[in-house]
Amino acid sequence: MDCELGNQCVIVTNNDYGVCIGGRSPGNSNDERPIKIKGDLDETFGDVCENNMDCGPRSFCEMRFAVGREGVCFPKGFNIQNFMKY
Domain ranges in the chain? Predict the structure, then answer.
């Protein structure tokens, strides 16, 4: 298991791997196999962020699941509801 206690692993549909959100250690920092997704032109999906500027001009910092002040980068226009959560 790549995500720490308190995190959720969000798995992209049709993929075996995902990204950790929420908890005290979000993002790909604990991930043994960080994934790449189509539409991530900034190549920041899964990076830890505190604001949109941390993610690049075509991405945003998703903070809805944050416990602290760190969120996770997602490509703009990417609907997080397309993810399955575990």
Answer: 8-85
